[in-house]
Amino acid sequence: MHRLLLLQKAVLVAVGVLLLASASGSGIQPAAAHGGANGIWCTHGAYDAGTNTRTFSLTTNTGYIGTPDGNVVYMWGFSEVAQPFQHPSPVLCVNEGETITIIVQNTLNQDVSITFPGQENVLAAGVPAQPQFDGGGNLTSLTNVAPAGGGSMTYSFVATHPGTFLYQSGTDPDIQVRMGLFGALIVRPADGRYFVYNDAALPVNSEFNHAEGGEILILQSEVDPMLSQAVERGRPFNMNNYHPRYWLINGRGFPDTLAPNYASWLPTQPYGALAQIQPNDETNPLYYLERFVNASSQPLPFHPHGRNAIVIGRDGQPTRGAAGEDVSYERFSLVAGPGQTYDALFHWHNREGYDPTTNPVPVTDPGWQNLQYGMFYSGSPYLGMTGPFPPGMTSMSECGEYYVIAHNHALHQLTSWGVPMTGPGTFTRIDPPGGCMPMP
Questions:
Q1: Of 7, 98, 200, 271, which is most buried by a Cβ count within 10 Å?
Q2: Is the pTM of this model over 0.70?
Q3: Is residue 27 in a domain?
Q4: Could you tell me if residue 394 is inside a domain?
Q5: CATH number of the domain that 126 lies in?
Q6: Domain of 207?
Q7: Per residue, what are the HEC states of the chain?
């Protein structure tokens, strides 16, 4: 019976992949190298040095995403003009001090808009953005809209301070944000020495790794397939019945979260969530950075095993006291509320320093017949080493790296419509010193 269920799941996943391929054509094609196989993949827009303006042209799109239980779910999203649907919407990366212009083309059959929490003096069509009301004085949108059926709206603001932010629809957000009209906005400091905030007292600054691969995005969201089905069929939906069945990281559920950015078999879900790092030592004294963004409707706790998060910023503001003192703090499990963002440092230190000759693991492994090997085990307990396996077994380890799980700590959400260990989970991959080739 267990083998039959596994076979049925494999068939469902295969069908889901075929449906996604037919719905999305060849999938998203990254326009340029904005990142690596793992880590944050940025969309940079078009930059005009003469005016210090960065422009993004986004359009609304509809499409389908795959879930680890083999389902295919209808969603909305913003994408770059001339690019197909993607979920979540692009990660917009800008620099402090730039004037940011975002042009939205609306192809949907209802008005849409974008709000930019944490940004000041946002303009819409050149005038201050304002909430919208109907003739009866009822609020219809939190900001100016791009009208349904081909309308457009241009938003602009100056990125006055660095940090991690959320952008999302301000029109009927209970439905439109849940349907996928959201994304992450990253403002990098103008002073290139400092990677997160222009504050020389923060531990992240001059010693931090400036490569984009040193940053990890944990963008958490949720999906109610019943809402998605109602929207797809043009039927009303009572939000009192809203009940998420999927919780995602960067638009994917586990194990898809481990796949690299722009994996060909996930044509509409371009962003992976694997943190690929090296041990912290004298040759690699750098911290890594995680940017946490919660686009869901409820608080979500995230727990990275084996490495606590040092919180250095919340909602785009550095953790500083009233007198300017450093009040960063460490968390075993980080809870982000709806719409909230965190910036956190982390590293992994090989404290035991086990070595097969000078410092062996003080435990003798049982025989093969008494062990169950995981797919990412290298055959050796030592970092950077591989070992033999029982006949017929294969491993996904490349060079003896370690894998440590990181996941949503609300365990009932670590599911896909009840299928356990398929929701918002990922791994930290610790490569041996010097690294090894990334996962294909």
A1: 271
A2: yes
A3: yes
A4: no
A5: 2.60.40.420
A6: 2-216
A7: CHHHHHHHHHHHHHHHHHHHHHHHCCCCCCCCCCCCCCCCCCECCEEECCCCEEEEEEEEEEEEEECCCCCEEEEEEEEECCCCCCCCCCCEEEECCCEEEEEEECCCCCCECCECCCCCCCEECCEECCCEECCCCCEEECCCCECCCCCEEEEEEECCCCEEEEEECCCCHHHHCCCCCEEEEEEECCCCCCCCCCCCCCCCCCCCCCCHHHEEEEEEEEECHHHHHHHHCCCCCCHHHCCCCEEEECCECCCHHHCCCCCCCCCCCCCCCCEEECCCECCECCCEEEEEEECCCCCEEEEECCCCEEEEEECCEECECCCCCECCEEECCEEECCCCEEEEEECCCCCCCCECCCECCCCCCCCHHHCCCCCCCCCCCCCCCCCCCCCCCCCCCCCCCEEEEEEECCHHHCEECCEECCCCEEEEEECCCCCCCCCC
Report residue 2's pLDDT band, with 50, 70 and 90 as the boundaries. very low
Percent with pLDDT over 90 in the chain: 71
